[in-house]
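Incident review: delayed structure delivery

Summary: a single-chain prediction request sat in the queue longer than the usual turnaround. Root cause was a stuck worker, restarted by the on-call engineer. No data loss occurred. The affected request and its eventual output are reproduced below so the record is complete for anyone auditing the incident later.

Affected input:
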Amino acid sequence: QLQLVESGGGLVQPGGSLRLSCAASRFIMNFHAIGWFRRAPGKEREGVSCVSKSGSITNYADSVKGRFTISRNNAKNTVYLQMNSLQPGDTADYYCAARPLSCSSSPEAYDHWGQGTQVTVSS
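Output delivered after worker restart:
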């Protein structure tokens, strides 16, 4: 019931696009905000974006503003992260996570995590 599964990662050239998906259980979608985080090799985990339970509030890290868009489709129990104008600095493992109701930029505030999907931006 408390499951998150990411998909959509892969290898893309600089300037390209990918759309990540986070498939969640119905319980999670009904009661939780969903955040996307990433961890690049040798770096700390970083918050990328978040969407509130209702979908009315979204936020983004400064490094991805204007390039990434988060959305949720509650009917499909899925949250998406559309990533455009990808750069080598976006290379990382991307994770979705859930916490009750509202967003937080702190990974420690999230109760449930997926296994991650790898994104590599390289020519």
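Verification: The mean pLDDT is 95.
Action items: add queue-age alerting; document worker restart procedure.
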